[in-house]
Design brief:
Layout (H helix, E strand, L loop, with lengths): L4 H13 L3 H30 L3 H26 L1 H14 L15 H67 L5 H28 L2 H5 L2 H15 L3 E5 L9 H22 L3 E9 L2 E8 L10 H6 L3 H12 L3 E6 L5 E8 H4 L2
Parallel strand pairs: 1-2
Antiparallel strand pairs: 2-3, 3-5, 4-5
Length: 353
């Protein structure tokens, strides 16, 4: 007899799992009502025969009502437990804590099982879509870097060499002219100066597209050069802390961190109104980290990526996307009148996979 009880319990549990939610609640409430009515009638009949006082009968009635209410609450809570678990799961997804977890409901009914399956399928589709978007974004960034490098080389080898040749020829013509031909000579001088200024601006564009120092000397010298060149030119005191020895980082991560530093430094120059900025780069505890801090006017940094897009902070959106593509963490702290602090950390284990 005892051996058959687990089998009976499993059959009852299987049948209960096929019972809809509203049927469970209706059956449970019906049992409470019927049991309360029968039990109350029998008790009142017995109390009447035994001549129990009215106060004692009222006390038993109150106890019966309390027991009925508690049983009803327990039945409703047990029946609605799958919905509560679904709600907790959705809340955890919204907070970003359960994206990789599966939905496991205790004692579900057919409706909540279907709802959980649909929710799980929707989450899988969203995750697949996000993975595709990340892959597209990664390919776009790689294509952008490759195109920048190609354009920079083309400008350096073709346009830059042509301007250099033009300047040399103008200098030769300038030297061949007689001193009395001041008008023509003055025109050549102006043309040579214009060509030289154009060449200087072209070199700035080339360094902005793909600084050769990044490929030749590495990330730390490239960040030091870019920070001092741009911040000091804008009248901002630059304090740069980078390792003296070369960092053995993958080329992709070197490019990513340099572009992040480049965008952050440009934001400091354009928007911060700062007098001092500090840039730090280092490796510790299996992570490479980058910090850019300024004492400028600051801004309200609260909000997520959607908020940044709505406020048209496209530079911050680009930085966040680059950080996410290399599996890093992005943190921005800023308040109006208190400057800004941008911190990026990337695990080296992710970059070497």
């Amino acid at each position: 007899m005892m051996a058959s009880q687990p089998g009976i319990f499993k059959r009852l549990q299987a049948r209960l799992s096929r019972t809809p939610l509203y049927s469970r609640i209706a059956i449970g409430n019906s049992i409470i009502i019927v049991a309360g009515a029968i039990g109350g009638t029998l008790l009142i009949h017995r109390f009447t025969e035994q001549g129990v006082e009215l106060l004692s009968m009222l006390l038993f009635v109150i106890i019966g009502i309390a027991v009925s209410v508690l049983l009803n609450v327990w039945i409703v809570r047990a029946a609605l437990r799958p919905l509560l678990e679904l709600r907790r799961f959705v809340d955890s997804i919204q907070s970003g804590l359960a994206c990789d977890e599966s939905i496991a409901l205790s004692n579900p009914d057919p409706d909540t099982s279907q709802l959980a399956a649909s929710l799980g399928s929707l989450i899988d589709q969203l995750e697949a879509g996000n993975r595709q978007l990340r892959q597209i974004s990664e390919r776009a960034i790689h294509a952008q870097e490759a195109e920048r490098k190609r354009i920079a080389l083309s400008l350096h080898d073709d346009t830059g060499q042509a301007l250099t040749t033009l300047i040399i020829n103008l200098e030769r013509l300038e030297g061949r002219l007689a001193d009395q031909d001041t008008g023509t000579k003055s025109g050549l001088v102006e043309a040579r100066k214009l060509a030289q200024d154009t060449l200087n601006e072209l070199r700035k564009i080339i360094h902005g597209l793909r600084p050769t120092i990044l490929d030749d000397l590495g990330l730390a010298p490239a960040i030091r050069w870019y920070a001092r060149s741009n911040l000091e030119a804008a009248g901002i005191q630059a304090e740069v802390h980078v390792p003296e020895e070369p960092l053995a980082l993958p080329a992709e991560l070197n490019t990513t961190l340099f572009r992040i530093a480049q965008e952050a430094i440009n934001n400091v120059v354009r928007h911060s109104g700062a007098a001092h900025a500090e840039i730090s780069l280092g490796v510790s505890d299996g992570e490479v980290w980058l910090c850019i801090e300024d004492d400028g006017r600051g801004f309200n940094a609260a909000g997520d990526k959607d908020e940044a897009i709505r406020m048209q902070h496209w530079g911050l959106v680009g930085i966040r996307e680059r950080v996410e593509l290399v599996g890093g963490c992005f943190d921005l702290a800023s308040e109006p009148g208190r400057g800004s602090l941008l911190q990026v950390t990337v695990p080296l284990s992710h970059t070497t996979r």
